[in-house]
Structures are given as structure tokens and as C-alpha cells.
UniProtKB/TrEMBL annotation:
Functional pathway: Purine metabolism; GMP biosynthesis; GMP from XMP (L-Gln route): step 1/1
Signal sequence segment: none
Source organism of the structure: Brevibacterium siliguriense
Entry EC no(s): 6.3.5.2
Protein name, per record: GMP synthase [glutamine-hydrolyzing]
Reactions performed catalytically: XMP + L-glutamine + ATP + H2O = GMP + L-glutamate + AMP + diphosphate + 2 H(+)
């Protein structure tokens, strides 16, 4: 595609001219924007770029592998993974308030990334001497408009994107996607060879599964939710519904139990909620009319395959008055 290629070529030139022989870092989240931004910068300057991926333990099934293996194999980028799962879990222990969870996850993310960045800066200083001067961010055009808008609407949920970094950071920003919309970013990502599992990914909130467990976040609950979420996504994809669905959060009602029966026995397990929504921009949304037979397969599989889940319920609330996420 001529247009995509020319956008790529133009950005590659700009990035090369600006960076020179200096070094660059990028916080990779596994989402579309940071993955495509990093791929573009890598095309321009190769191993002068190092990506940092923070595994906070709130990721979905296979997400880490998709970054560490699929993405790295196809892009060839240098990647440092920080396994911070225990740190995040211990900071989240006992916390049930949604905004408190967001605050903790955002704070721990910044701490973890800054520590990793500081180590890389030190390494660079001890090495050949080229300093790390730039930080890549996957900012898109709608993000630029939104933050400059100042519409004065009430803050319903604090939406700090995890990956949102402190203002006093010592790096200059490289934002190669600033003029683009999401579908253009996806097209460029495909052109650059970013794996389809990443390019076509649904939006996923920075705080991850942490705000899809209603109640305290624990490792056991995360494992339960990860399984249920993977089944729902697999079946929705199989049914060809990805184009129609903006997002389908699966929410674990961890403090609710209900009675059920399975095999010869009584169960007393947790419900999960399916929250399929259709939307243009996440500002408003309608619940997606998923065919009953697809819902039926998802419900049967989740209750059969995931221990401790004995009920699947469907959220049929539009936004407004509901939000997309439950927290
Ligand atoms: P709500 O729940 O407000 O979500 O209707 C709108 C969109 O924003 C995502 N979302 C978040 N993204 N950090 C993020 O990076 C957050 O704290 C956060 N909360 C919600 C949500 O997944 C949906 O796409």
C-alpha cells in the first residue's frame, strides 16, 4: 500500500535524523499502539532501541509470550522483561476500591519502569558512551486531541494509561503515531510485520485484570479470570464476532457466591459476567447482541473448564448509564 509505505518512510527518515547515534527506550505494553510505535522506531534505528516490558501479573493468558516470542521474533527488537508480578500483588493485597487499585498499579508501573530505565542508562554509560536520550510513546491523534481539549467534563474514572509516565522524566519524547488514527496504526503495524494477534487486539485497560476482579486481587482469582477470559475470547473469535465487538470484558464477582449443582454435587462458586460492547470510541457503547448459541458455548465451556465458576451472566447495560468496565 503506497500510503502506508510513504508514512513509514517519512517517519523512518525523521526518527533517524533526530536520534542520530543516541539510544532510545520504549515501554512496551503488548497493546497495538506501543507495539507499532516500537516497530517503526526499530525499523529506523535498529538496536539503538531497547524495549522494556513490565509483567505486572495482570495480563491476559499468553500475552507475555506474544510479546516475548511472537513480537520479538518478527520485529527483531531488543527486549528487557521485568517480572514484577509479586511486587504488584503485594501492593494490591487487601485493596478493593477501584480508584485505589488504579493508583497503586499506575504508581508501581512507573517505579518499575524507572528502575529498569535507570539500569539501562547506567549500562549505556559504562558501555560505548552513547547516552539514552529518547523515549518512545504510542500516542495517537485522538489522544492528542483529548488531552488538549479541556472539555471540563467530570472525571468518572481516572484513566491514566499504564505506560503513562511522569512529567519530570529526563528523556525527549518520540511519538511517531501522533498524526494517526487507530485503523491507520493497525495498517502500518501489518505493513511492518507486527503479529496479527497484537495488531488486531481489543483495547485492554492499563490496570489490566486488576479492575476486572470485583474485590481483592489475588493470584488465585487472577488465574480463574484468565481462564474464563481466554475461553470467551476464543469463542467470540471463532464465531467471527471480533469486527462487531469493541471489547468484551469478562468480570469476576469474587466476593459473590451462588449455589449450583455439578455432577453429583452441590457447588458454591463465583459468577463471571460477560460484558460484550459495540462502540466507535468507548465514550458511548451498546451491549452487543451475541447469538444465543455462541453465548451457550461460552457458558458451558467456562462452567465446565474453570474451577470455582458455576454461573455465567450477561451484562445488557448500555453506556451510559453503565461504563464498559465494572470498576
Ligand atoms: P469505561 O469503563 O470508562 O472505559 O467505559 C472506557 C474505555 O477505557 C478503558 N479503561 C481504561 N484504560 N486505564 C486505561 O488505560 C484505565 O484505568 C481504564 N479504565 C477503563 C476501557 O477498557 C474502555 O476501553
Amino acid at each position: 500500500d503506497w500510503t502506508n509505505e510513504s508514512v513509514i518512510d517519512e517517519q523512518v527518515e525523521l526518527i533517524r535524523a533526530r536520534v542520530g547515534s543516541k539510544k532510545v527506550i520504549c515501554a512496551l505494553s503488548g497493546g497495538v499502539d506501543s507495539s507499532v510505535a516500537a516497530a517503526l522506531v526499530h525499523k529506523a534505528i535498529g538496536d539503538q532501541l531497547t524495549c522494556v516490558f513490565v509483567d505486572h501479573g495482570l495480563l491476559r493468558q499468553d500475552e507475555r509470550v506474544q510479546v516475548e516470542k511472537d513480537y520479538v521474533d518478527s520485529i527483531g527488537v531488543r527486549l528487557v522483561t521485568v517480572d514484577a508480578r509479586e511486587q504488584f500483588l503485594s501492593q494490591l493485597a487487601g485493596v478493593t476500591d477501584p480508584e485505589e487499585k488504579r493508583k497503586i498499579i499506575g504508581r508501581e508501573f512507573i517505579r518499575t519502569f524507572e528502575t529498569a530505565a535507570a539500569e539501562l542508562v547506567l549500562e549505556a554509560q559504562e558501555g560505548e558512551g552513547e547516552e539514552i536520550a529518547f523515549l518512545v510513546q504510542g500516542t495517537l491523534y485522538p489522544d492528542v486531541v483529548e488531552s488538549g481539549g479541556g472539555s471540563g467534563t467530570a472525571n468518572i474514572k481516572s484513566h491514566h494509561n499504564v505506560g503513562g509516565l511522569p512529567d519530570d522524566i529526563q528523556f525527549q519524547l518520540i511519538e511517531p503515531l501522533r498524526a494517526l488514527f487507530k485503523d491507520e496504526v493497525r495498517a502500518i503495524g501489518r505493513e511492518l510485520g507486527v503479529p496479527e494477534v497484537i495488531v488486531s487486539r481489543q483495547p485492554f485497560p492499563g490496570p489490566g485484570l486488576g479492575i476486572r476482579i470485583i474485590g481483592e486481587v489475588t493470584e488465585e482469582r487472577l488465574n480463574i479470570l484468565r481462564k474464563a477470559d481466554a475461553i470467551a475470547r476464543e469463542e467470540l473469535t471463532k464465531a467471527g464476532l471480533d469486527g462487531e465487538i469493541w471489547q468484551c470484558p469478562v468480570v469476576l464477582l469474587a466476593d459473590v457466591r451462588s449455589v449450583g449443582v455439578q455432577g453429583d454435587g452441590r457447588t458454591y462458586g463465583h459468577p463471571v459476567v460477560l460484558r460484550p460492547v459495540s462502540s466507535e470510541d468507548a465514550m458511548t457503547a451498546d451491549w452487543t447482541r451475541i447469538p444465543y448459541d455462541v453465548l451457550s458455548v461460552i457458558s458451558n465451556r467456562i462452567t465446565n473448564e474453570v474451577d470455582d465458576i458455576n454461573r455465567v451472566v450477561l451484562d445488557v447495560t448500555s453506556k451510559p448509564p453503565g461504563t464498559i468496565e465494572w470498576e
